[in-house]
Amino acid sequence: MLIGITGKTGSGKTTIAKLFDEFYHIDVDKIVHEIETQEEVIERIKELFPECIENNKVNRKILANIVFSDKNSLEKLETLTLPYMVREIDRILYQNENCIIDYNLLPLTKYFDMADINILVETDEETRKTRILKRDNITEEEYNNRNKNSLNTDNYNFDYVINNEEQAKSIVKSLKNH
Questions:
Q1: N or C: more exposed end of the chain, with fewer CB within 10 A?
Q2: How do residues 49-96 score in pLDDT, each as one tens digit?
Q3: What confidence tier does 36 reach under pLDDT thresholds 50, 70, 90?
Q4: CB 3 within 8 A of CB 175
Q5: What are the beta bridge partners of residue 24?
């Protein structure tokens, strides 16, 4: 079984995904972080965003500031990392029977259509902002840049929309018994 989980940054996707403890958790953000340590990816990022490379490593904070403030730059980075990301996700799916894929841009990928169940996690703006400022140690302006490029999920159909922890636990329990 494949469960897709999506929502804006700081909505609680990963927290909800971890409730599915029998499922292999595919955290796409972690996969992308790993991809950005590969030499050939670093070289490509250096071509696109040279100011983001320090000591032959990607400075993720600088890169985030660039790509989250400019949709074109974000698309360039996604185009670069997507083939690597897809290859790794496909490998994981091939090796594991039950997976939950946690990705804020999930509806834009083939995995949204492949999922047996798609879940949207919604959380109020102030809670998300507080979480992200603390978790990522960023400024409010940096948060606003990330937020303005968030995916509009209104155009997609979800099997479940979760907006509180009790509801999440109830849904997880029913899906585990399914």
A1: C
A2: 999 999 999 998 899 888 888 889 988 998 999 999 999 999 999 999
A3: very high
A4: yes
A5: 99
The string of DSSP codes covering the chain is -EEEEE-STTSSHHHHHTT-TTSEEEEHHHHHHHHTTSHHHHHHHHHH-GGGEETTEE-HHHHHHHHHH-HHHHHHHHHHHHHHHHHHHHHHHHH-SSEEEE-TTGGGSHHHHH-SEEEEE---HHHHHHHHHHHHT--HHHHHHHHHT---GGGS--SEEE-SHHHHHHHHHHHHT-
Q: If we measure between CA atoms, which residue out of 164, 158, 165, 160 comes closest to residue 175?
A: 160
pLDDT in tens, 136-154: 888 888 888 878 777 788 8
Name the phi and psi angles at 162, rounded to 5: -110, 130
